Amino acid sequence: LFAATRYAVATGNWNSTATWAATAAGAPGASVPGISDDVIFVDGFVKVTVTANATSNSVHIENAASGTGDNWLFINSGITLTVVGNVDIEGFHSGNTSRGARVTLDGGTLTVGGNVTMGCHTNLQQFLDLGNSRNANSVVNVAGNFTHTATGLGNFIPGTNSIVNFNGTSAQVIDFTAPINKYANISINNPAGVTV
User: Fold this and answer.
1) Which of 28, 91, 158, 193 would you label with 179, given CA atoms 20 to 30 Å apart?
2) Under a CB-based contact definition with an 8 Å cutoff, are residues 186 and 156 in contact?
3) Nearest to residue 85, comparing CAs of 111, 54, 56, 114?
4) Rounded to the nearest 10 degrees, how much is the dihedral formed by the CA atoms of 151, 47, 132, 116?
5) What is 112-163 written as a DSSP string?
6) Measured distance CA(150)–CA(156) in Å, rounded
7) Alpha-carbon gap, residue 48 to 50, rounded angstroms
8) What is the pLDDT of residues 24-78, one digit of tens each?
9) Nearest Cα residue to 30 out of 40, 20, 38, 39
């Protein structure tokens, strides 16, 4: 398999070529991301919904540079998105709170072979939402570290029935500083241990 980069340039389903471009701000119609491909949200504002099990090498979500709205990855109930490497949810472009980077699991599963990182500028928002007020049985499996580097409006929303599994094989770091200091359920299954 040849590695490629896929940019989310239109609102739509993950498994639709109309959602993806081969370049930033490019024309839609590129192939759907696969296990070797890096996925980037940078051109806003788009919502990509995972409606069938999917895999990518990495996912990087930035807020748009201007305008109003979120770049948003949404995983449906009963659906799994597997990311071989890292997931970064970044409020990269400075601006105001009308632009964000968001990942929502509505009873779906996000399996991450690398790190999950949330980070932003002081006046931008990023979200990892595992169910909000809904009783969504969302699952996040993390083999790497789960950290928060934001100085501003980061939001980790654990919901009520979600679980975050730390199941790496080498030592992991769990960042318990706000806002990722509250979990609905947490499981640690790592023989190498974790640092909190």
Assistant:
1) 193
2) no
3) 114
4) -50
5) ESS-EEEEE-TT-EEEEES-TTS----EEEESS-EEE--SSEEEEE-TTT-E
6) 12
7) 7
8) 989 999 999 999 999 999 877 899 999 999 999 999 998 776 666 788 999 999 9
9) 20
